[in-house]
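Researcher: I'm preparing a figure for a lab meeting and need a structural model of a single chain. I don't have an experimental structure, so a prediction will have to do for now. The sequence is pasted below. Please return the structure as tokens so I can convert it later.
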Amino acid sequence: MTQQPPPAYGPPPGYPAYPPPPKHPQAVTVLVLGILGIVVCGLIGPFAWSMGNRVVTEIEASGGRWGGESEATIGRILGIVSTALLALSVVFLVAVLAFGGTIFSSFALGG
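Model: Understood. Here is the structure written out token by token.
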């Protein structure tokens, strides 16, 4: 008597596997905007952040009809980081403009 091999993983015979839901049409767009906000231009970051919030909310409200939540969440987080870096650079630029003039004027006067 021979032993049968153990059953393979997957759905039981007779039951079809469900395909994954389609990705939200803007999930990859949010991811690309988040990456571009970090790498190329920080001004894109707030757009990735706000679009990411909207897309993640739509995916969660869809009840499983839309996928792509991980892409939208990563894009949203990258948008938050890009926006924070943009805000820090604006604060640094304002500080340099405000205090840089007083430092350079004291050097020019020799004092």
